[in-house]
Design a protein that fits this description.
406 residues; mainly alpha; 15 helices; 0% strand; disordered C terminus
């Protein structure tokens, strides 16, 4: 799924220079993929049988591989839109099924272990960057798509007999599954300790009010993050040597591999909204850096900051929603984030005629606005005192899970 969904980012500059793809058409292809991903995620939520179906998993793996292999067969933007839509649907279903299986199989294990499993998405991002890095000097954009299809087929073969087992969580938590990268926040939603947090608003009205702030923050994050997730390589390639763009994407993936587990561990020590604010500010800096500072060092640092935060922000936002105890919080947050992802590329399309720098700056501003909403959340939710901590009352941090990670 990491290769199938994210290889488009490093191959985009090649398609622009070799296949005549315009910047606006590139944004539309990205939007088609994100819309397909939302559709596949909703299907996985509304049709529970899909998450326990080996046939659905295998059909999705085949469709994902086929959509990549078909990209170089045509030069038609309309066909490309359809193929990226199919890739989005298929990758979402693969992720829905895989995350459900992982949480079921690892039931009773520490909560950071699912985070390491989902690091596979980061590994796929890194692999897609390596493909472009290795092939672009000797082959064209078609070869990259075919190579990505071959790698996806190889990985699909390894995943063909994935053990499907449902997690021992209440049915009401089902909407947690289809988020982009839920990691341990998914399993944390059903934890009994969520109901005990110190500092949480005591009235339903106040909880809903602060949840609305969280929803606004997470929707804005989806809008800003996806602009960098789509155009970061193309932006870096405009001002840096040829290898730097793909190399930066490799670093994004490598930084993402351990980030889920690391943010989960941090969430056991610090309040969730503190970490959410910090992660958003760091990500905004990472997105703005290549637009403000030219050079290889800035591009690579940007990649590390971006890769290390986008998984953690999803984890922290979803866990905060669960801590606030708002009905269907994870489903609502997922919907807002997904809509933000669809809107992001469309919002910056008018700016792309002047290059990618204005788009990245706008994306960074949007993420900073998301951080401002998170800061309001942090101020509005009182922190437990030192005495409260001494009494070991739960704080608004990563909830303990029912998987033995108390």
């Amino acid at each position: 799924m990491g290769v199938g969904r994210f290889v488009y980012t490093p191959v985009l500059p090649l398609m622009q220079t070799q296949a005549g793809l315009s910047a606006s058409a590139g944004a539309h292809l990205a939007t088609a993929n994100y819309a397909g991903y939302l559709g596949g995620a909703l299907a996985g939520t509304l049709i529970p049988g899909l998450v326990r179906s080996p046939a659905a998993l295998r059909a999705s793996l085949v469709a994902l591989t086929g959509s990549l292999a078909a990209m170089p067969v045509t030069h038609g933007t309309t066909v490309w839109l359809g193929l990226r839509l199919v890739a989005g649907v298929a990758s979402a279903l693969v992720f829905v099924i895989a995350v459900t299986s992982v949480l079921g199989v690892l039931r009773g294990h520490p909560a950071h272990l699912p985070g390491w499993a989902f690091g596979g998405v980061g590994a796929g991002i890194a692999a897609s960057g390596l493909l472009v890095l290795g092939l672009s000097p000797v082959a064209d954009w078609r070869a990259v798509w075919w190579a990505s299809a071959a790698l996806t087929a190889l990985l699909a073969g390894a995943a063909w007999r994935l053990r499907l087992e449902l997690p021992a969580t209440p049915a009401s938590t089902a909407p947690a599954v289809p988020v982009t990268l839920p990691v341990s926040a998914v399993s944390a939603v059903s934890a009994a300790s969520v109901a005990e947090g110190a500092g949480r608003p005591t009235t339903t009205r106040r909880r809903r009010r602060w949840f609305a702030v969280l929803l606004a923050s997470y929707t804005l994050e989806g809008t800003g993050y996806i602009v960098a997730g789509t155009f970061l390589v193309a932006a870096v390639a405009q001002t840096s040597p040829g290898w730097v763009g793909s190399g930066a994407w490799v670093l994004v993936g490598l930084a993402a591999v351990p980030s889920a587990a690391l943010w989960t561990r941090l969430g056991r020590r610090r309040p969730l909204h503190d970490l959410l604010l910090a992660a958003l500010v760091v990500q905004a800096v990472g997105i703005a850096l290549p637009a403000l500072v030219s050079g290889v060092a800035a591009a690579l640092l940007s990649a590390v900051l971006f890769g290390a935060t986008f998984i953690g922000i999803s984890t922290l936002a979803l866990a905060t929603g669960a801590w606030l105890q708002v009905h269907r919080s994870v489903g609502l947050l997922t919907a807002g984030y997904s809509v933000g992802q669809i809107l992001g590329p469309l919002a910056v399309t008018p700016l792309l005629r002047d290059g990618y720098r204005p788009a990245l700056l706008l994306a960074a501003a949007v993420v900073l606005t998301s951080a401002a909403a998170a800061a309001a959340l942090r101020v509005g939710l009182r922190h437990p005192t030192a005495a409260t901590r001494t009494r070991r009352r739960p704080t608004p941090r990563q909830p303990a899970t029912n998987q033995g990670d108390a």
